[in-house]
Amino acid sequence: MPYRRLPNTDAARQRAIETALEQSENVVPQFLAYNQPTLMKLRKVSLQLAQALDTHNKTYLQRVNANKEYQKAFKKARLYLSHFVQVFNFCVIRKEIPKSSRKYFGIQPNDSTVPLMSSEIELVEWGNKIVEGEKQRLSEGGNAIYNPKIAVVKVEFENFMRLYKSQVTNKNSHDLSIKNLIRVRKEADNLIVDIWNQVEEYYSKYPANEMRKNAERYGIKYVLRKKEKLLRNFSE
Q1: Cβ(38)–Cβ(190) below 8 Å
Q2: Domain span holding position 96
Q3: pLDDT in tens, 136-168
């Protein structure tokens, strides 16, 4: 005997819901195979699913599109910050700046390595240390560094931070849309099962083939088992 195949994609869920709704428009209420409270819930869930999918798609695209500009800003800020530290180290080697001045950046005096800034967290951490540390060093009479100037480095870092905060907001919005979509999917799945159960019960007094034929008008999908497919093909 064929079995029901419940929808497992959002497109299939929408088709199942839309088909069940269409029957409510084509059949007078007393002959509708599911009850009126279910119809009211169906209209509500149909709207919720459409809105949840739309919000999910919009937040996803917004995050993807914004990420292109963000990645450029990330690479540029990392480049300027790394070059600034390299030039600072050259100044130390030339004894234009004492190695003890590395303390302003949270770096040990004898550590001439460039801080690792390959991740967002590292770039945020070291960017703040370098920009604020250089501000303090200059305020205490330290020699200025050129090419790149700290003012230029700061502009690139602040641009990165602006987009970084925007990306965090985009991620939070997208994550929230996923949670909402998961909730609505579950509600839609439960409702579809309820509708299909009501429909099959309504036509349960009909012969099996006729019952399934009527039920399919409400969006129920019946699938033949493997053995049944083989028997059908053999008989044909």
Answers
A1: no
A2: 3-235
A3: 999 999 999 999 999 999 999 999 999 999 999
The rounded distance, in Å, linking the Cα atoms of 123 and 80 is 11
Backbone phi, then psi, for 211, in 5-degree steps? -60, -45
Looking only at the bridges linking them, the beta strands covering 222-223 and 3-4 are antiparallel
CA-based angle 149:152:155, to the nearest 5? 150
Using alpha carbons, list the distances in angstroms from residue 69 to 78, 158, 175: 14, 14, 21
Asked if 183 and 168 count as a contact pair (C-beta separation under 8 A), the reply is no
User: Could you tell me if 218 and 196 are in contact, meaning their C-beta atoms sit under 8 angstroms apart?
Assistant: yes
**Largest interatomic CA distance in the chain:** 97
* pTM for the full predicted model: 0.78
- Copy the structure tokens of residue 174: 């997208």
Model pLDDT for residues 30-60, shown as the tens digit of each residue: 999 999 999 999 999 999 999 999 999 999 9
Domains contained in the chain, number: 1
Q: How far apart are the C-alpha atoms of 36 and 143, rounded to whole Å?
A: 80
Can you state the angle between helices 36-93 and 150-202, rounded to 10 degrees?
Answer: 160
